[in-house]
Design a protein that fits this description.
Helices cover 44% and strands 17% of the residues. With 462 residues, it is α/β, with parallel strands linked by helices. The longest helix has 30 residues. The strands form two sheets. Strands 3-4-5-2-1-6 form a six-stranded mixed sheet, covered by helices on one side. Helix 6 packs antiparallel against helix 7, helix 7 packs antiparallel against helix 12 and helix 12 packs antiparallel against helix 13. It has 14 helices and twelve strands. The structure holds guanosine-5'-diphosphate (GDP). Guanosine-5'-diphosphate binds next to helix 8.
């Protein structure tokens, strides 16, 4: 990838298509000069940073292309840390592409995806974990994914990693000092304290690694499979949840042919509902096998809503069905549907030791929208078992997970080395490895390849 840092780069920073406003962004040492050559109303080379100017953009034939507002940022006080000019134009794709062509002819180069943010990173405006979170912030589509990304952009995760590294660096320095003394048998680094520190750091790393599962579902949505026998009311439930006639409801068993997937945001969390009504067979045993296969096929499913028609299912039958499905209790919710036809139903009859209980069994009527809100609460609490989880740092990025795992392995090797009494140089080596992996998260150490793979995932203009 061509990444000449000296170039002045340009891109359309707003999404494609028509809009009230479209923004062209220029960044680099020649940004002001290039902007001034097209913006004839005022000499932008002479204006201060953080200033806004109304005027016209003209092409080489001095034809007016648009009336625009230019916002000037001067290095280092800009997003990229370089001189930046943003032209707010009328949001016509023709105007924007003509304006950009004009800037390109005036000496700018088209920005690569993520190049503005990469420059921000290279110029020390943010670390790598923060820069990655910018992509998550742009992609965030609900309250929770937004607040996770925002925390990371504001440096929450980076600070946690930096604190771990700092403690380890202090110890590494002592060990390296021992090595300098070579033959002399000195120990500056207290081995007991080092051991304690390693355990503490590993605990933090393990907590961060565990948070990834939650982070992942929060970021990508919780896939939730609606399973159950034909006519249990699965499609009706999906409609009730979505409050619209999306799935086809009928009393003829097996009418829902296709797997239907719908997105719903509950308390700022994204759920992706998959109706498996179409995947089934007729004979009883095969039926449950069919559902089981459906569940396996959609094995990424984080949660299963198992619907039961209480008018035709006695507790022993439900138990047999759930056992056949080999369900895991923490990702199962049993819905005792059609309670309107069975008002004296006793939900606790359907509690089975180790599988179902008050936290995951809900009587309801999908058709009459009874307990649909209670179901939403139950769904939310099944994912967020403890609300304080959301206040802690949550890892959402697989690159970070990988680095944390590697750091953890190196720390385990240091501990093992201490146990077996290996020499200081081996310990120092493993500590350096752990430091390296932690540093790779925030980008204190980074290779060209790593940067490319991170920033090319951005959209152009960011
Ligand atoms: P699916 O095969 O599991 O998707 O079941 P459907 O959603 O197509 O529902 C089958 C039948 O049960 C339809 O006639 C629904 O109107 C009816 N039904 C669904 N939920 C309820 C309910 O809570 N109460 C009653 N009385 N009927 C329901």
């Amino acid at each position: 990838m061509q990444r000449n840092q000296q170039d002045t780069i340009v891109a359309i920073a707003t999404p494609p298509g028509q809009g009230a406003i479209g923004i062209i962004r220029l960044s680099g040492s020649k940004a002001l000069e290039i902007a001034s050559s097209c913006f004839t109303s005022k000499n932008l080379l002479q204006v201060p940073g953080y200033s806004v100017h109304f005027g016209v953009l003209k092409n080489e034939q001095l034809e007016i292309l648009d009336e625009v507002v230019a916002t000037v940022f001067r290095a280092p006080h800009s997003y990229t840390g370089e001189d930046v000019v943003e032209f707010s134009c009328h949001g016509s794709p023709y105007i924007l592409s003509s304006a950009m062509q004009l800037m390109l002819r005036s000496g700018a180069r088209m920005a690569e995806p993520g190049e503005f943010t990469m420059r921000a990173f290279l110029n020390g405006k943010m670390d790598l974990a923060q820069a990655e979170a910018v992509a998550d912030l742009i992609a965030s589509e609900n309250k929770i994914s937004h607040s996770m990304a925002m925390k990371q952009v504001r440096g929450g995760f980076s600070n946690e990693i930096a604190a771990l590294r700092q403690e380890l660096i202090d110890f590494a320095a002592l060990i390296e000092l021992e090595l300098d003394f070579g033959e002399e048998d000195v120990e500056f680094a207290d081995r007991t304290k080092l051991r304690d520190l390693l355990h503490r750091i590993r605990l933090t790393i393990h907590r961060l690694l565990e948070s990834f599962e939650l982070g992942n579902v929060l970021k990508h949505g919780v896939s939730t499979i609606i399973a159950g026998r034909p006519n249990a009311g699965k499609s009706t439930l999906l409609n009730a949840l979505l409050n619209e006639e999306r799935a086809i409801v009928s009393d003829i068993a097996g009418t829902t042919r296709d797997t239907i997937s719908e997105i719903l945001h509950i308390k700022g969390m994204k759920f992706r509902f998959v109706d498996t009504a179409g995947i089934r067979d007729t004979a009883d045993v095969i039926e449950s096998l069919g559902v089981k296969r459906a569940l396996e096929e959609i094995s990424r499913g984080a949660l299963v809503l198992y619907m039961v028609d209480v008018t035709v299912t006695i507790p022993a039958q439900l138990k047999a069905q759930l056992t056949a499905l080999d369900m895991d209790a923490d990702r199962l919710i049993v819905l005792l549907n059609k309670m309107d036809l069975h008002p004296y139903l006793n939900a606790s009859d359907y509690y089975f030791e180790g599988l179902t209980g008050p936290d995951n069994v809900l009587p309801m009527s999908a058709k009459n929208h009874m307990n649909v809100e209670a179901l939403k609460d139950m769904l939310y609490h099944t994912v967020v078992k403890d609300a304080s989880m959301l206040d802690q740092t949550i890892v959402t990025n697989t690159r970070h997970v990988d680095a944390l795992k590697r750091a953890d392995e190196s720390l385990a090797a240091v501990l093992q080395g201490l146990d077996t009494g290996v020499t200081g140089d081996f310990i120092a080596f493993d500590i350096r490895q752990a430091l390296y992996h932690l540093a790779s998260i925030t980008g204190n150490i980074s290779s060209e390849d790593l940067l490319d793979s991170i920033f090319t995932r951005f959209c152009i203009g960011k």
